[in-house]
Amino acid sequence: MLIATDSLFSLSSANTQPCYAGGPATLICKAVISETHDSKTFVFEDTQSRSFDFKPGQYVTFAFDINGERHVRAYSISSTPTRPHNIQVTVKRVPDGLVSNWMNDSLAPGMTVEIADISGAFNWIDIPCDKPLFLSGGSGVTPVMSMLQYITDVTLPKDAVFVHFARSPKDVIFRDQLEFMAKRFSNVTVHLVVDSNDEEGFAGETGQISAELLARLVPDHAERSIFMCGPEGFMKAARTVADALPFAALHQESFGEKITLDEATETGGEVFFSLSGKSGQCAKGETLLEAALNAGIWIDSACQQGVCGNCKVMVTQGEVEMQDMGGLMPGEAEAGYVLTCCSWPKGPVAIDA
């Protein structure tokens, strides 16, 4: 683990320190923790010494300057608001992942980063239940881990089941913490499932997500509300399972590296933000979401893949190229709505933002 220089901390001062209330801020990386061979947790504090008040499961939108270009990404917070002195995000290396790989290779204690805001409707506070089923794949463990830590920190009397899927035992993010929590708290059950197992003594399951497997691991599934998160490939399989088995409720979030255009030569242009009265320039290959954040316009976003639908806006003038992956409802594209995370202007455009 890499740690920045020591700083004094006391509980009494933490209880009275100012609180981050949203909007742009500068954070400093205080520590980098290796979770697996290809994922790290980054611990951030506010440069203005404010504590963080957020809802477990929410995400933070970062703006990184890499090689002279700004890149906007949203990462779920893997820590819990019951430990407000810092926020933590856990990032997994992915093939061709410009930002995630840069963070794993280059982001170190003492470096500063910019954030736009903390938000997200996929959180425990707004959609609580008595019998949660936390279902995750790969790095999708991060927001549901935040929820589980909150439940155990506050000692909520919830009957929680946590089912996590990974490629192998060495790929299970937070494995030690999850196994410890299952031993320590009688109301927490953890099932770890891997595609293949070459580790002697691994106590988890081997297999892939299926209705048969989930019904066996969680026989009372009809009484449980699912909180599921992961890369879109995992989420497609999880939705198929959710269609095959009865559940009390379904809450979901998918994410990954942002969508890019294979050919971006004909994109770009001036963007007019009609609701705020501002305008900005969208560079070639840059999304409307990135152009908005660069112009100081906040648009809620999460998955960066055209799936969740959070970044939907109305285009009132101009033409855009969009790669919708299911985030729009039927008829919304025809009505003029686009998903800003996967839309590129083809000349001047105006949007309601």
Automatic annotation (TrEMBL):
Keywords tagged on the record: 2Fe-2S, FAD, Flavoprotein, Iron, Iron-sulfur, Metal-binding, Oxidoreductase
GO molecular function: 2 iron, 2 sulfur cluster binding; metal ion binding; oxidoreductase activity
Domain 2Fe-2S ferredoxin-type: 269-353
EC number: 1.-.-.-
Cofactor(s) recorded in Swiss-Prot or TrEMBL: FAD; [2Fe-2S] cluster
Pfam families, per database record: FAD_binding_6, Fer2, NAD_binding_1
Limits of the FAD-binding FR-type domain: 22-125
Family indicated by similarity: In the N-terminal section; belongs to the FAD-binding oxidoreductase type 6 family.
Protein known as: NADH oxidoreductase hcr
